[in-house]
Amino acid sequence: MITMIAAAGENNELGKDNGLLWHLPDDFKRFKQLTTGHHIIMGRKTFESFPRPLPNRTHLIITRNKDYKKEGAVVVHSMEEALKISEKDDQPFIIGGGEIYKMGLPFTDKIELTRVHGTFPDADTFFPSFPEKEWLLISEVEHEKDERHKFSFSYQTWVRK
C-alpha cells in the first residue's frame, strides 16, 4: 500500500519558501509514528529542508539532477524508480513536496492528510486536488487549537475506492 502523507491548509496550501506555514507538534509526532521504519519518498528540496536525515527511515530522493548524491539517502530520477526500490516495504510514504505529490497521486492507495483549519494566502506550494468521488474518507479525528497549536486541524485518512 502506497501512502501519501501531508499537512495542508483549507485551500491545499503546503508551504512557502521550502518551509511550513505552521508549527503543529502533535502532527510531527504522528508523522514520526507513521513513517518510522518505512521508505519515505521526497523531492530534493524537501530533503534539503531537513536539518539531517530523519532517523529509522530509508530516504528516497527524486531529482532530475543526474549528478546529485547525498549521503544517507538513495537518489532516483522518477517516481517509478522510487516505488521499485521500496517495493519490499509494505507501506512506503510519499512525503512531498508539491510536485512529488502530483507525481505520486496516481500510484497512491491511501492519503494521511492533516487538514489545517486555516487559509494561508502567502503559500507557494500546494497539495494536489484529488477527486473525492474516487476516494473514501475512513477516519477523521479533530484536534482543537491549544497553547502548543495555533491552528485547529483534523487527521483525515482517505483510501482509494
TrEMBL record:
SUPFAM superfamilies: Dihydrofolate reductase-like. It catalyses: (6S)-5,6,7,8-tetrahydrofolate + NADP(+) = 7,8-dihydrofolate + NADPH + H(+). The keyword Ribonucleoprotein does not apply. GO terms for cellular component: cytosol. Pathway: Cofactor biosynthesis; tetrahydrofolate biosynthesis; 5,6,7,8-tetrahydrofolate from 7,8-dihydrofolate: step 1/1. Its EC number is 1.5.1.3. GO terms for biological process: dihydrofolate metabolic process; folic acid metabolic process; one-carbon metabolic process; tetrahydrofolate biosynthetic process. One of its GO terms (molecular function) is dihydrofolate reductase activity. Keywords: NADP, One-carbon metabolism, Oxidoreductase. It is an enzyme of class 1 (oxidoreductase). Residues 1-160 form the DHFR domain. Key enzyme in folate metabolism. Catalyzes an essential reaction for de novo glycine and purine synthesis, and for DNA precursor synthesis. Belongs to the dihydrofolate reductase family. This is Dihydrofolate reductase. It comes from Aequorivita antarctica.
